[in-house]
Amino acid sequence: MCPRPVSLIACLALLPALVSCSDTPAPPPPLSEAALAAVTEDAGAPARQLARQVDDLFVNEEAGETRALIVMHGGMIAAERYAPGYDRNTRFVSWSMAKTVTAVMIGMLVADGRLALDDSPPVPRWRRPGDPRGEITLRQLLQMRSGLRHTEAGDPPYDSSEVRMLFLDGRDDMADWAESQPLEAEPGSSFEYSSATSVILADIAARVLSRRDDPEARREAVAGYLHTRLFGPLAMESMVPEFDANGTLIGGSLIHGNARDWGRFGDFLRHKGSYRGSQLVPRKWVEAMTAPSPRRENYGFQTWLNRQVPGESENPLFPGRAPQSMFAAIGHMGQYILVSPEQKLTVVRLGHSDAEERAVLLQELADIMELYPAE
Question: What are the boundaries of the signal sequence (predicted)?
């Protein structure tokens, strides 16, 4: 009769250890007031789930520092949140999201009949007799397959094309530096992502729009065109484009705007260039922007696409977790405008995340988007 009480005592002694070994995860902490307040009443998704996913972006240090987030569903804000020190009036630098703005500006000039996609653009040094760069077309520049020797994010960093152009020997006349580089491949034959290419596009716009070559005239012509044709009609009142000393828009890197205005720009693209009944850029142009390049499955006209590139494991987006039709403007250190027409979604994330953190960040953003089924 002795063993029974001994066994019972032994079991009781082991109970805390058994509980500690349980596979049941600890419940998440309660949502803060800030997390709950970020979600609107008509969010188009379960409010508490959306609040939780948004909160994860702000509290998960492994995803870097999120400073602003906008989720728009069906054109309405579903969630909006800012980190301490930032608010809806804060202007955030675009970094490479500016490339997509530059592509829209070029599309407007093509629609105006001032440029042609498959012609050599008006770059004077390329038009000299015998210069092989005269074979480069506007389409090839838009798709990052010009063949010019532009090395983005090179090693060492100070020898990278974007660093030299933005901060070193090219900084006073960025387009001149970018356009002076020789060919390293046949135009159209290969993809090479390049901020210098976007500056060439911005220079082409200035040459077409300005009657004079002086910096102030170039600056006024391009800034006026952007505000009259794009920023003004979209009520993007916070937008501030930057120009170099020669009056060239730094069209690959430096446009500033608040989170809501970046959201307006993304939703404008979701509607294929239409805003409140006005077609600001042809639908076919936005379709071309979001169609794969012949040399890069996940890149269109200065715009990233949610597609897998054969033979590559890394991806700047998340194929398989959002529709293939999703596209994005992506900027350095984790700036994103994610646009998913099938989900009626535009998501803007602005902040600071390094390469390792961005891998986590992308999955957090995918978690938000998966709350909205494709239609």
Answer: 1-22
